[in-house]
Amino acid sequence: MTATLPILYSFRRCPYAMRARLGLLFAGLQVELREVVLKNKPREMLDISPKGTVPVLQLTNGAVIEESRDIMLWALEQSDPQGLLPEGALPEVNSLIEQNDTEFKYWLDRYKYFERHPGMTQSEYRQRGEGFLQELEGRLNKSRFLLGETVSVADIGIMPFVRQFAHVDREMFYRLPYPQVQRWLQDWLKHPTFVQAMIKYQPWQAGDESVVFPLPEFLVRASL
Ligand SMILES: N[C@@H](CCC(=O)N[C@@H](CS)C(=O)NCC(=O)O)C(=O)O
Fold it and tell me: What is the enclosing helix (H) or strand (E) of 8?
Protein backbone atom coordinates (compact mmCIF):
# COMPACT_ATOMS: atom_id res chain seq x y z
CA MET A 1 0.00 0.00 0.00
CA THR A 2 1.37 3.45 -0.83
CA ALA A 3 0.87 6.11 1.83
CA THR A 4 -0.50 9.41 0.58
CA LEU A 5 1.44 11.56 3.04
CA PRO A 6 4.78 11.03 4.80
CA ILE A 7 4.32 9.85 8.40
CA LEU A 8 5.95 11.80 11.23
CA TYR A 9 6.39 10.11 14.61
CA SER A 10 6.66 13.02 16.98
CA PHE A 11 6.50 14.01 20.62
CA ARG A 12 5.19 17.48 21.35
CA ARG A 13 7.67 18.46 24.05
CA CYS A 14 10.80 16.99 22.44
CA PRO A 15 13.09 19.75 21.09
CA TYR A 16 14.33 17.51 18.28
CA ALA A 17 10.75 16.80 17.22
CA MET A 18 9.97 20.54 17.46
CA ARG A 19 12.69 21.35 14.96
CA ALA A 20 11.38 18.67 12.60
CA ARG A 21 7.82 20.06 12.83
CA LEU A 22 9.13 23.60 12.28
CA GLY A 23 11.06 22.44 9.19
CA LEU A 24 7.92 20.85 7.75
CA LEU A 25 5.82 23.94 8.53
CA PHE A 26 8.29 26.37 6.95
CA ALA A 27 8.52 24.08 3.93
CA GLY A 28 4.73 24.16 3.63
CA LEU A 29 4.55 20.35 3.61
CA GLN A 30 1.88 18.17 5.15
CA VAL A 31 2.44 14.91 6.99
CA GLU A 32 0.39 12.41 8.91
CA LEU A 33 1.34 13.13 12.52
CA ARG A 34 1.58 10.30 15.02
CA GLU A 35 2.06 11.60 18.55
CA VAL A 36 4.17 9.13 20.50
CA VAL A 37 4.29 8.32 24.20
CA LEU A 38 8.00 7.77 24.85
CA LYS A 39 7.33 5.18 27.55
CA ASN A 40 5.16 3.18 25.16
CA LYS A 41 6.54 3.61 21.65
CA PRO A 42 4.37 2.17 18.91
CA ARG A 43 5.52 -1.07 17.30
CA GLU A 44 5.02 0.55 13.87
CA MET A 45 7.68 3.16 14.71
CA LEU A 46 10.16 0.67 16.20
CA ASP A 47 9.76 -1.57 13.16
CA ILE A 48 11.02 1.17 10.84
CA SER A 49 13.45 2.78 13.33
CA PRO A 50 14.67 0.40 16.02
CA LYS A 51 16.82 3.04 17.72
CA GLY A 52 13.60 4.32 19.24
CA THR A 53 14.03 8.10 19.24
CA VAL A 54 11.66 10.72 17.89
CA PRO A 55 11.31 12.33 15.44
CA VAL A 56 11.14 9.72 12.68
CA LEU A 57 9.81 10.52 9.22
CA GLN A 58 8.66 7.79 6.88
CA LEU A 59 8.40 9.00 3.30
CA THR A 60 5.70 7.83 0.90
CA ASN A 61 8.27 5.65 -0.93
CA GLY A 62 9.02 3.85 2.35
CA ALA A 63 12.38 5.57 3.01
CA VAL A 64 12.94 6.51 6.65
CA ILE A 65 14.68 9.63 8.00
CA GLU A 66 15.72 9.09 11.61
CA GLU A 67 17.57 12.26 12.57
CA SER A 68 15.82 15.55 13.29
CA ARG A 69 18.41 17.63 11.41
CA ASP A 70 17.97 15.45 8.32
CA ILE A 71 14.18 15.82 8.53
CA MET A 72 14.47 19.63 8.56
CA LEU A 73 16.91 19.60 5.67
CA TRP A 74 14.85 17.10 3.67
CA ALA A 75 11.70 19.21 4.13
CA LEU A 76 13.40 22.44 3.08
CA GLU A 77 15.05 20.76 0.11
CA GLN A 78 11.55 19.81 -1.13
CA SER A 79 10.28 23.36 -0.81
CA ASP A 80 11.69 26.48 0.79
CA PRO A 81 9.36 29.40 0.06
CA GLN A 82 10.81 31.55 2.85
CA GLY A 83 14.47 30.84 2.08
CA LEU A 84 15.51 29.05 5.28
CA LEU A 85 18.38 27.34 3.46
CA PRO A 86 20.55 30.25 2.30
CA GLU A 87 22.92 29.35 -0.49
CA GLY A 88 26.31 28.18 0.70
CA ALA A 89 25.29 28.39 4.37
CA LEU A 90 25.11 24.66 5.04
CA PRO A 91 28.61 24.28 6.56
CA GLU A 92 27.89 27.12 9.01
CA VAL A 93 24.44 25.72 9.79
CA ASN A 94 25.85 22.25 10.38
CA SER A 95 28.58 23.49 12.66
CA LEU A 96 26.17 25.57 14.78
CA ILE A 97 23.67 22.72 15.05
CA GLU A 98 26.48 20.30 15.86
CA GLN A 99 27.60 22.59 18.69
CA ASN A 100 24.00 22.76 19.90
CA ASP A 101 23.40 19.01 19.76
CA THR A 102 26.63 18.01 21.44
CA GLU A 103 28.04 20.66 23.76
CA PHE A 104 24.99 22.78 24.58
CA LYS A 105 22.63 19.80 24.94
CA TYR A 106 25.15 18.11 27.23
CA TRP A 107 25.17 21.08 29.67
CA LEU A 108 21.45 21.68 29.25
CA ASP A 109 20.64 18.13 30.39
CA ARG A 110 22.87 18.52 33.42
CA TYR A 111 21.47 21.95 34.24
CA LYS A 112 17.92 20.61 33.98
CA TYR A 113 18.52 17.31 35.79
CA PHE A 114 21.30 18.46 38.13
CA GLU A 115 20.10 16.09 40.90
CA ARG A 116 21.12 13.16 38.71
CA HIS A 117 24.58 14.67 38.11
CA PRO A 118 26.12 15.49 41.47
CA GLY A 119 29.56 16.32 39.97
CA MET A 120 28.82 20.08 39.78
CA THR A 121 26.20 22.47 41.12
CA GLN A 122 23.22 23.51 39.05
CA SER A 123 24.61 27.00 38.55
CA GLU A 124 27.94 25.59 37.35
CA TYR A 125 26.08 23.52 34.77
CA ARG A 126 24.12 26.61 33.76
CA GLN A 127 27.31 28.63 33.36
CA ARG A 128 28.81 25.96 31.11
CA GLY A 129 25.70 26.09 28.95
CA GLU A 130 25.96 29.85 28.77
CA GLY A 131 29.07 29.48 26.61
CA PHE A 132 26.76 28.68 23.70
CA LEU A 133 24.37 31.50 24.60
CA GLN A 134 27.33 33.90 24.37
CA GLU A 135 28.02 32.67 20.85
CA LEU A 136 24.35 33.18 19.92
CA GLU A 137 24.33 36.62 21.57
CA GLY A 138 27.29 37.67 19.40
CA ARG A 139 25.42 36.62 16.26
CA LEU A 140 22.14 38.21 17.33
CA ASN A 141 23.91 41.45 18.11
CA LYS A 142 24.74 41.68 14.43
CA SER A 143 21.46 40.51 12.92
CA ARG A 144 17.87 39.75 13.80
CA PHE A 145 18.29 35.98 13.27
CA LEU A 146 21.30 33.71 13.67
CA LEU A 147 22.50 33.85 10.07
CA GLY A 148 21.10 37.19 8.96
CA GLU A 149 17.97 39.29 8.76
CA THR A 150 15.64 36.40 7.94
CA VAL A 151 14.86 33.06 9.57
CA SER A 152 17.18 30.20 8.66
CA VAL A 153 17.34 26.53 9.43
CA ALA A 154 19.88 27.37 12.17
CA ASP A 155 17.21 29.34 14.07
CA ILE A 156 14.58 26.61 13.94
CA GLY A 157 17.16 23.93 14.73
CA ILE A 158 18.47 25.67 17.83
CA MET A 159 15.56 27.63 19.29
CA PRO A 160 13.77 24.62 20.88
CA PHE A 161 16.89 23.89 22.95
CA VAL A 162 17.35 27.50 24.09
CA ARG A 163 13.66 27.47 25.03
CA GLN A 164 14.26 24.38 27.15
CA PHE A 165 17.29 26.01 28.78
CA ALA A 166 15.25 29.15 29.55
CA HIS A 167 12.40 27.14 31.00
CA VAL A 168 14.55 25.42 33.62
CA ASP A 169 14.36 28.73 35.53
CA ARG A 170 12.71 31.53 33.57
CA GLU A 171 13.42 34.26 36.12
CA MET A 172 17.09 33.40 36.14
CA PHE A 173 17.25 33.19 32.34
CA TYR A 174 15.80 36.67 31.87
CA ARG A 175 18.28 38.07 34.38
CA LEU A 176 21.27 36.78 32.39
CA PRO A 177 23.23 39.29 30.27
CA TYR A 178 21.97 38.04 26.89
CA PRO A 179 19.36 40.60 25.80
CA GLN A 180 19.49 39.61 22.14
CA VAL A 181 19.00 35.90 22.88
CA GLN A 182 16.11 36.84 25.18
CA ARG A 183 14.53 39.01 22.48
CA TRP A 184 15.04 36.30 19.83
CA LEU A 185 13.47 33.63 22.07
CA GLN A 186 10.53 35.87 23.03
CA ASP A 187 9.85 36.57 19.35
CA TRP A 188 9.93 32.85 18.59
CA LEU A 189 7.58 31.93 21.41
CA LYS A 190 4.86 34.08 19.86
CA HIS A 191 5.72 33.33 16.24
CA PRO A 192 2.59 31.85 14.57
CA THR A 193 4.61 29.00 13.06
CA PHE A 194 5.98 28.01 16.45
CA VAL A 195 2.52 28.27 18.00
CA GLN A 196 1.29 25.95 15.23
CA ALA A 197 4.18 23.54 15.89
CA MET A 198 3.11 23.28 19.53
CA ILE A 199 -0.54 22.35 19.04
CA LYS A 200 -1.45 19.36 21.21
CA TYR A 201 -2.44 16.03 19.70
CA GLN A 202 -3.70 12.88 21.37
CA PRO A 203 -1.25 9.96 21.39
CA TRP A 204 -1.56 7.82 18.28
CA GLN A 205 -2.73 4.21 18.29
CA ALA A 206 -2.90 1.79 15.38
CA GLY A 207 -6.32 2.03 13.78
CA ASP A 208 -6.81 5.73 14.64
CA GLU A 209 -8.00 8.07 11.93
CA SER A 210 -5.07 9.97 10.35
CA VAL A 211 -4.17 13.33 11.85
CA VAL A 212 -2.98 15.67 9.12
CA PHE A 213 -0.34 18.19 10.19
CA PRO A 214 -0.60 21.08 9.72
CA LEU A 215 -4.26 21.85 9.21
CA PRO A 216 -4.92 22.86 5.57
CA GLU A 217 -5.79 26.46 6.50
CA PHE A 218 -2.39 26.95 8.09
CA LEU A 219 -0.61 25.45 5.12
CA VAL A 220 -1.97 28.23 2.90
CA ARG A 221 -0.73 30.92 5.28
CA ALA A 222 2.70 29.34 5.68
CA SER A 223 3.34 29.29 1.96
CA LEU A 224 2.30 32.90 1.26
N1 LIG B 1 19.78 12.55 17.39
C2 LIG B 1 18.36 12.40 17.50
C3 LIG B 1 17.96 12.60 18.95
C4 LIG B 1 16.46 12.48 19.20
C5 LIG B 1 16.13 12.24 20.67
O6 LIG B 1 17.02 11.98 21.49
N7 LIG B 1 14.83 12.29 21.02
C8 LIG B 1 14.43 11.95 22.35
C9 LIG B 1 13.22 12.73 22.84
S10 LIG B 1 13.55 14.47 22.97
C11 LIG B 1 13.98 10.49 22.37
O12 LIG B 1 13.26 10.06 21.50
N13 LIG B 1 14.43 9.73 23.38
C14 LIG B 1 14.07 8.35 23.50
C15 LIG B 1 13.40 8.04 24.80
O16 LIG B 1 13.29 8.92 25.64
O17 LIG B 1 12.97 6.89 24.94
C18 LIG B 1 17.69 13.40 16.56
O19 LIG B 1 18.28 14.46 16.29
O20 LIG B 1 16.60 13.13 16.03
Answer: strand 7-10
Atom of ligand 1 at shortest range from CA of 54: 12
Q: How many domains does the chain have?
A: 2
CATH code for the domain in which residue 103 is found: 1.20.1050.10
Q: Which domain holds residue 125?
A: 90-189
Answer yes or no: is 134 within a domain.
Answer: yes
Cα(69) to ligand 1 centroid in Å equals 12
Please state the pTM of the whole predicted model: 0.96
Q: Closest Cα to atom 13, ligand 1: which residue? A: 53
pLDDT digits (tens, 9 = 90+) for 158-216: 999 999 999 999 999 999 999 999 999 999 999 999 999 999 999 999 999 999 999 88
- In sequence order, what are the residues at sequence separation of 6 or more whose Cβ sits closer than 8 angstroms to the Cβ of residue 219? 28, 30
6-26 per-position pLDDT tens digit: 999 999 999 999 999 999 999
Task: Give distance in angstroms: CA of 66 to centre of ligand 1.
Answer: 10
The CB of 220 under 6 Å from ligand 1? The reply is no
